[in-house]
Specification:
Blueprint (H helix, E strand, L loop, with lengths): L5 E3 L1 H38 L11 H26 L3 H34 L1 H17 L12 H11 L27 H9 L51 H47 L6 E3 L6 H18 L37
Antiparallel strand pairs: 1-2
């Protein structure tokens, strides 16, 4: 029994072809949108690529770019097919192509669905990449004289100001690294020397943060040095007072920013997938109704269109049998040293002797 069987008149077939022609061109536009979203995400990731570890986070925008380009090509071809299907004579040139086109497009829609799901599953990999990348970038904050890393101080300062964040997970991350270059340390001061000697690695660690961590909305002047020393500041208690620093870590800030972008892209891709699937369903109805019309031999007659000619289980069983048949055809009979022709009788060799020599003919006594 056919699945979703619908009867089409000639007028309905023509209208369906015209509507599908328009929808395929809309799908070309959606493919261009997917391509643009992939480029946008790629640019956004590259903007702060120096703050990310060498993780493979570019696969998502690259996939969107590829899917967008393929969608444009597929839907352009689908639009041409549907436009020609308005004329029954022109349909004949596409008759053998439409079924492979539908099958390939059906499997391509799963790539679109995979792209939508990947937008929602990328958060974990991005989190790890930002965690490692920000840690390494903060260690290079002081290297303003080192080629290749001298720009990281400016990058981190702009990041903390723009996203209103501080450190990797929080402002205390700056306590664990030396973020002041030694060229700005007064080695004649005993406090500086003692602080360097007190650290096993010879680092100048302190309970301070860069200026970019200061909360611009705080009414109090920014306290960025000696944050844990209550006596260093008037009317100050660091354990109970809300510090005038950004409390959120930059990793979380960037992760929320990219997650919002990817969720928006994922929703757009999911809607595109549903739209592509609906257009493909219409093309399938058009193809089956036109083929049934050709079988009847009357272009003006009514014809049936369906999604599947048989039920889902019957279609699966038929396809499975076809696959099994193809597998048997490719098998080689190895029972006789793999020679498939060894058991084929030969009339010219049927009477040969053991030495493969034809027997001599005995003359007739008569």
């Amino acid at each position: 029994m056919a699945v979703l069987k619908v009867k089409f008149t000639k007028t309905k077939r023509d209208k369906l072809a015209q509507v599908l022609w328009i929808l395929n061109w809309i799908s070309v536009v959606t493919g261009a949108i997917l391509f643009s979203l992939g480029l946008f995400l790629k640019v956004e990731l590259n903007k702060r690529g120096e703050l990310m570890a060498e993780q493979d986070v570019q696969y998502m925008p690259n996939m969107l770019i590829a899917v967008g380009l393929i969608a444009c090509a597929i839907n352009f071809l689908g639009g041409k097919i549907c436009y020609d299907c308005v004329d029954g004579a022109k349909f004949l040139r596409w008759k053998l192509i439409m079924l492979p086109y539908i099958v390939c497009t059906f499997f391509f829609t799963f790539c679109v669905l995979a792209g939508a799901l990947m937008c929602y599953s990328m958060r974990g990999e991005l989190d790890e990449s930002l965690n490692l990348g920000l840690t390494e970038a903060m260690k290079s904050y002081k290297d303003t004289d080192t080629p290749g890393r001298c720009y990281l101080k400016r990058t981190l300062d702009l990041l903390q100001i723009e996203f209103q964040c501080c450190g990797n997970s929080g402002y205390k991350d700056w306590f664990q690294i030396q973020w002041i270059s030694k060229r700005y340390l007064d080695m004649s001061q005993k406090e500086v020397v003692d602080r360097l000697r007190s650290n096993v690695e010879g680092k100048y660690l302190m309970d301070g943060v860069p200026f970019s961590c200061c909360n611009t909305f705080s009414p109090r002047p920014c306290i960025q040095h000696q944050l844990t020393n209550n006596s260093a500041h008037f009317n100050y208690e660091h354990q109970t007072e809300v510090l005038n620093l950004w409390m959120r870590g930059c990793r979380q800030a960037l992760l929320d920013y990219y997650t919002h972008i990817m969720q928006s892209i994922g929703l757009t891709v999911l809607i595109t997938w549903l739209f592509e699937l609906s257009v493909l369903t219409g093309v399938r109805f058009l193809q089956t109704s036109l083929e049934n019309m050709l079988r009847q031999g009357d272009p003006d007659s009514e014809s049936d269109g369906w999604l599947l000619e048989n039920s889902f289980m019957e279609t699966a069983r038929i396809n499975l049998n076809i696959i099994k048949t193809l597998g048997k055809c490719n098998q080689i009979d190895t029972a006789n040293n793999g020679d498939p022709n060894i058991n084929v009788p030969s009339s010219s060799k049927a009477n040969y002797g053991p030495d493969n020599v034809p027997p001599k003919q005995t003359p007739d006594a008569s």
